[in-house]
Amino acid sequence: MSQHRLPNEQADQVGSGGFGEAMFAVTRIAIGFIFFWAFLDKLFGLGKATPSEKSWINGGSPTKGYLSSLKGTFADAFTDIAGKAWADWLFMIGLCGIGLALILGIGMRIAAVTGAILLFLMWLTALPISSNPFLDEHLIYAFAIIAIAVTGAGLRYSLAPWWRKLTAKMRWLW
Known about the structure:
The chain has helices at 19-44, 64-67, 75-79, 85-104, 108-125, 137-151, 160-166. The protein is an all-alpha fold. It is found in: Membrane. Keywords: Membrane, Transmembrane, Transmembrane helix.
């Protein structure tokens, strides 16, 4: 007989601590690394997606290159914000904050909401999707981070227990 637990009640009591929960932790960290790596690459121009001369610290725009080259359904809406300072700042703060929150397992509610919004917007930029009529990795990542935040699965392998004690009176920060 399994014991029913409320989502996000206690990170150190979620799941059985077995292989499945460890895999949720690995998934959370991996998706977090995707966000955080994109932040680092755009900030410093590490040469993967962003060459050094186009890095943010060298005066480049983290949003201009991608958003200004869109051809899809919502291209006009996104090309209008390409390279705007407010869009660059929001994008970079989002990549860094969401990435670190997922890697560390803290602030999962905010990370899930903001991460899902950012991923949904990135999904919109890809429409129409060439490989599938509807679904791509952006939506899968969004579903995964929402599921982890709602269930708390894998958070025992994070800073969540400490974070929840620290922010006990501000549960919205969990």
